[in-house]
């Protein structure tokens, strides 16, 4: 008659399993705290985030907008944007027809390649302004002084639900492309509290003089 050792084998296997799961003591005879990564895992550095990559950003002021974008991309910068340096909020639909007046960040320094590069631009036949006009910013609780500003940029600054009336200050012309018109007068005036009331503007074309 054979003697079965099944129970003994199971006990031995269980003991080995427990021993395999027990953290090994370090050089000081102390076992690491539960959840501590093994030395092998820590040495790989797989859980570390690599540092940001930087590259020298070229100085692209004075170049055509399309050329500036191509050279920026060739240097490793791909987050590119542009705005109307004259503050008229015109869209740079055909980049070859625009030239660069300013860039942010400026060229010449090492810059994170993930940074957004913003070009201030004007059309080829236009002169760059002495000071780059910022893009439209939302108005606060009071009416700003919009006189002299491009009508399209003014509209972009006002709330999207605002009731806005725009009239030609010289003739009874239709104001179709507001980026080609500038504000001559406004109602309510600058400093008036805005509480949802309609706003009205008289405008002329950009190259015209207000009456």
Verbal overview:
The chain is an alpha/beta fold. It contains four helices and eight strands; from the N terminus they run ααβαββββαβββ. Mean pLDDT is 83; it is low at 1-30 and 35-49. It has a three-stranded mixed β-sheet. A three-stranded mixed β-sheet has the order 6-8-7, covered by helices on one side. 21% of the residues are buried. It is elongated, with a radius of gyration of 33 Å. It has helices at residues 6-21, 39-44, 65-74, 151-157; strands at residues 54-56, 80-84, 98-104, 110-112, 117-123, 164-168, 181-187, 199-205. It is 18% helix and 21% strand. Among the domains are: 54-123, 2-Layer Sandwich (Trypsin Inhibitor V, Chain A); 151-205, no CATH class.
* Mean pLDDT metric: 83
Low-pLDDT runs: 1-30, 35-49
Number of helices: 4
What is the CATH domain class of the domain at 54-123?
Answer: Alpha Beta
Q: Helix fraction?
A: 10-25%
What is the CATH architecture term of the domain at 54-123?
A: 2-Layer Sandwich
The whole-angstrom Rg is: 33 Å
What structural class should be given to the helix and strand makeup? alpha/beta
What topology emerges from the helices and strands here?
Elements: H1 6-21, H2 39-44, E1 54-56, H3 65-74, E2 80-84, E3 98-104, E4 110-112, E5 117-123, H4 151-157, E6 164-168, E7 181-187, E8 199-205
Parallel strand pairs: 2-5, 6-8
Antiparallel strand pairs: 1-4, 3-5, 7-8
């Amino acid at each position: 008659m054979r003697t079965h050792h099944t129970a003994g084998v199971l006990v031995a296997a269980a003991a080995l399993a427990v021993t395999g799961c027990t953290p090994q003591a370090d050089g000081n005879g102390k076992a690491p705290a539960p959840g501590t990564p093994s030395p092998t895992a820590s040495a790989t550095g797989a859980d570390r985030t690599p540092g940001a990559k930087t590259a020298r950003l070229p100085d692209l002021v004075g170049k055509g907008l399309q050329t500036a974008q191509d050279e920026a991309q060739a240097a490793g910068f791909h987050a590119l944007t542009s705005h109307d340096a004259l503050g008229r909020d015109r869209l740079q639909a055909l980049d070859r027809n625009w030239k660069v007046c300013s860039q942010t960040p400026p060229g010449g320094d090492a810059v994170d390649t993930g940074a957004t590069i913003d070009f201030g631009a004007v059309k080829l036949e236009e002169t760059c302004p002495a000071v780059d006009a910022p893009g439209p910013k939302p108005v606060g609780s009071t009416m700003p002084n919009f006189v002299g500003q491009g009508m399209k940029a003014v509209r972009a600054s006002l709330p999207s639900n605002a009731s806005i009336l725009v009239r030609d200050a010289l003739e009874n012309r239709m104001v179709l492309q507001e980026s080609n018109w500038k504000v001559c007068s406004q109602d309510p005036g600058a400093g008036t509290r805005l509480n949802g009331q309609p706003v009205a503007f008289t405008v002329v074309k950009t190259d015209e003089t207000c009456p």
